[in-house]
Design brief:
The chain is of the alpha+beta class. Helices cover about 35% and strands about 25% of the residues. The chain has helices at about 15-25, 45-60, 90-105, 150-165, 200-210, 215; strands at about 30, 65-70, 75-80, 110-115, 120-125, 135-140, 175-180, 185-195, 225, 230-235. Strand 9 and strand 10 form a beta hairpin. Helix 2 (about 45-60) packs antiparallel against helix 3 (about 90-105) and helix 4 (about 150-165) runs antiparallel to helix 5. The longest helix is centred in the middle third of the chain and has 19 residues, at about 150-165.
């Protein structure tokens, strides 16, 4: 994926967020790679089709899958990741949808990545396994602002840093947690990495995006930094399955 593929700000309207929360069916975002194109009936197209089908079977049992199919110069590399609390069936549904949708949005691109609430799907004609993807990233945030942003920002950073310190050594590289706010209010957080990364690379990836909190979500009631190798989310309401 090109390192120039970076989007700093993505703001969704409240209605869109409500619909997404209710159905989880619409993509959050996607990028089409500029690494090259292929033509119809190219061997790469057949390899990509087989790869997409394989990942839809491989990923759901554990929530993660990666593979490559074919030989250079037509080899296709791919990865699918589901959010750690998502069931195998919902994971499969999401990966199938993601694999189909990214091919519609990037029909002849040799690389692409798409994110949903429940999963991420990424493919390329170049091997990317085990390396942090710093090129594909976007922000989302809640439209509401907290009354005491400085204290809230500090509490958010502390929670996400704590979760990052747990996630990199967790077998699923996925951790959720919560922290007490004023009164009965709570702050909920999530950190996750793709499992092709080593523990140290997962930690490095998460530390990097947590460092972007001021740019992303300063004083906002909720927010996310979502990348091709790791992501975090925080809200003042529960947002994962029990």
């Amino acid at each position: 994926m090109s390192s120039s593929r970076f989007v700093s700000f993505v703001c969704l309207l409240s209605l869109a967020l409500l619909l997404q929360a209710a159905y989880g069916a619409d993509p959050l975002f996607h990028f089409c790679s500029d690494s090259g194109n292929f033509s119809a009936n190219d061997p790469y197209e057949a390899n990509l089709k087989d790869l997409t089908a394989y990942l839809s079977v491989q990923a759901p049992p554990s929530g993660f899958g990666l593979s490559s199919i074919g030989r250079n110069p037509s080899q296709a590399y791919g990865l699918a990741l589901c959010r750690g609390d998502v069931s195998s069936q919902d994971c499969k549904t999401c990966v199938v949808e993601a694999g189909s949708e990214i091919r519609k949005r990037c029909p002849y691109n040799k690389g692409g990545i798409i994110w949903y609430d429940n999963c991420m799907f990424k493919y390329s004609n170049s091997e990317f396994f085990g390396r942090i993807d710093n090129g594909n990233r976007f922000y989302m945030w809640n439209l509401n602002t907290v009354s005491e942003p400085e204290a809230f920002n500090q509490k958010t950073k502390e929670l996400l840093t704590e979760l990052a310190n747990e996630a990199y050594s967790n077998p699923k590289m996925y951790v959720v947690g919560e922290a007490e706010l004023k009164g009965s209010e709570k702050l909920y957080g999530l950190t996750q990495c793709t499992r092709d990364l080593s523990g140290s690379e997962c930690k490095k990836c998460l530390d990097g995006i947590i460092g972007e909190l001021p740019s992303c979500c300063d004083g906002k009631e909720g927010g996310r930094v979502v990348g091709g190798s790791c992501n975090f989310r925080y809200e003042i309401y529960p947002f994962v399955n029990a």
